[in-house]
Write a structure and sequence with these properties.
Helix content is 38%, strand content 16%. With 288 residues, it is an alpha/beta fold. Helix 5 crosses helix 6.
């Protein structure tokens, strides 16, 4: 089995619609794909309706968190999308996305970058606007060669010249909410130092005590020494280890299935989840 547990669609900051995403996942030879848009489940229904035979969909979301001034992302799998407390918390994050993006545009214009809000809004389309859309505008303008190059201290990286704060989950509260909604919580790309500061191992240990299920180890932003360190940490903390592409369509160069999750780990994730079932075949209900 080929299992990719971290992808994005136009419901947040990917370039594939949810329907295109599942079609492309099947074409890439995946058996299981997770749709984990930022702080939203808005793409799930379309993905389920378009799901090809032979492909299983794991519903999820990537939650924006911050602790001690450091940003981190939490992958939430197979939670009940109708859970009221988790939905209210996600709404608070989503509602802050437009003011934050506008502030980044303002800061970039102060740096003599000829970016406009209209340009960013056009790139975002119907998706949940975020930093990648601002980064894509910088690529269009020729300021940086790739979206990844915009996520540096010179531009939009954490603490960078055009960075703007936003409302984010406390990760301990996020873990609690995900677990209460029957989901499984995995720390996304915890060693992605190229993106900026990362949380210390002591914080990961505390999150494990609070109910964190796993670490995303095999990821394009982790070199081999980082992966080896994270595997050792996961063993010490009795955490699951996953792998995934963090696919964003044409917005990033990574391909679907670039990194994958072991089928036994996937099986354990589905056993732990009580909020939703994986959806096989050509559609079906995502609620238990």
């Amino acid at each position: 089995m080929r299992i990719d547990l971290h992808t994005h669609s136009t419901a947040s900051d990917g370039t594939d619609t949810p329907a295109e995403l599942v079609a492309n996942a099947a074409a890439a030879g995946l058996d299981v794909v997770a749709l984990t848009d930022h702080d939203t489940v808005g793409g799930h229904r379309q993905a389920v309706e378009a799901l090809p035979e032979g492909l299983t969909l794991v519903t999820g979301a990537e939650l924006s968190c911050r602790v001690d001034g450091v940003g981190l992302h939490l992958l939430a799998y197979l939670f009940d999308p109708a859970d009221a407390e988790l939905e209210r918390a996600r709404e608070l994050v989503r509602d802050d996305r437009v003011p934050r993006a506008r502030e980044m545009v303002r800061k970039l214009r102060a740096l003599d970058v000829p970016i406009t809000w209209e340009q960013v809004a056009r790139i975002a389309g119907d998706g949940s606007v975020g930093r990648p859309h601002v980064a894509a505008a910088l690529v269009e303008l020729g300021v940086v060669p790739t979206v990844s190059d915009a996520f540096t201290p010179d531009w939009l990286g954490n603490g960078g010249r055009a960075y703007a704060e936003k409302h984010e989950f406390d990760p301990f509260e996020a873990v609690r909410l995900v677990k209460a909604a029957g989901g499984v919580a995995v720390f996304a790309h915890p060693g992605a130092v190229k993106r900026g500061a990362v949380v210390p191992e002591s914080t990961i240990a505390a999150l494990a005590e609070a109910g964190l299920d796993g670490l995303e180890v095999d990821h394009m932003d982790h070199d081999e020494p980082i992966r080896a360190r994270l595997r050792g940490l996961a063993r010490d903390l009795d955490l699951l280890t996953t792998g995934s592409s963090d696919y964003h369509g044409s917005r990033k160069t990574v391909e679907l299935g670039a990194c994958t999750t072991d089928p036994e780990i996937y099986g354990e994730i589905t056993r732990r989840a009580t909020g939703a079932f994986p959806v096989p075949g050509a559609g079906g209900a995502v609620r238990r």
